[in-house]
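Handout, section B. The chain below has 383 residues.
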Amino acid sequence: MSFLISKTLIYAVPLMIVALAGVFAERSGVINLALEGIMIFGAFIGALTINLMQKANSFQIIDIAKDMTSNWGKVQTFLLLIMLITAAAGAIFSLLLALAAINLKADQTIGGTALNMLSPALVCFFIRLIAQQSELRMYKGDAASWFMIKKTMLGFEKTQDLGFLGETFLNKVYLTTYISIILFVVLSILLYKTRFGLRLRACGENPQAAASLGINVYKMRYSGVVISGALAGLGGFVYTLTTSNCVANGDVAGFGFLALAVMIFGNWKPLSIAGAALLFGLFKCVAASYSTLDINGDGVFLLLNISKDPVWGKVFNPHLYRLIPYVISLVVLAFTSKKSRAPKAEGIPYDKGQKCPPSKHRKRSRFSAPLACFWQREMVHSI
């Protein structure tokens, strides 16, 4: 069970922060379908930074890594630096979407799709140019030997039993997992409990009403898209570090699109998104680790045994396990998309001269549109 929970967190955390990235963009009024492309770009920048720093032995990182038990804190500081670089890279890449959607007023769905097509092509081109092969790896070692935190690094003996909680959250874990969870909590509070968050959400609900109160809609939408890009770029690096051995190959296994499904399933609310991410992370964990998954800790690999059964194995085969997360996403979206409530102004380019949009009710009097404007202005009156 400890293995199942720790693996679920590894897959759920990238989904959480990338889904939150989508929330920031859409709450500001911009649809960010480019999450997949930004993740791919962030994963590439992270892998490239590690490769180049190892090759150049920056900050004597190679010498430090020789004694990982005593110098693990310095290596984790190196990892934090790379997280900042990948977040900055994602933010810069997302400016392409911001320019197209906010300044040029282009169709946001087409703009996001274009970036999803551009990113893997660009990444594969640079990998061919730099590494002369189809993927970019670490120059020395692997992600687990360099960045995974083990209990021996924290002063415990290798054979010492830390109990259920200790083995789950302190042994064979990545610092990126906990940093991402902290970021998720802090940014959720920023979005829903601060003046900045209220202004951002007002621009996604009714930008004309927000502008009438002196809010710079363009600035807030740029802020939402840039924060979204930073989180998506960071999520791409966290994904490739924890699940792909820090290998960049122009692919993140559809995690950006899964994050969009998590965002819609979570109804654009952080707490619901966290629960949805854990659910999807569980199924992704089953898909990736079914052959080594000991659910009860009794040494019996139930899912592997089922796949080898002469009868049940024809149905519950490895291909079915790998298909489960994507089937679940389709089923969940089919049943929840109609009940989800997206921001009213998402996908609509902001125009200063446009009047406040009328109420969506079929029966409305001549007073309904002004009243709608009035109540939406009252909503942001405290800004």
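Note. The longest helix spans residues 68-103. Compare this with the example in section A.
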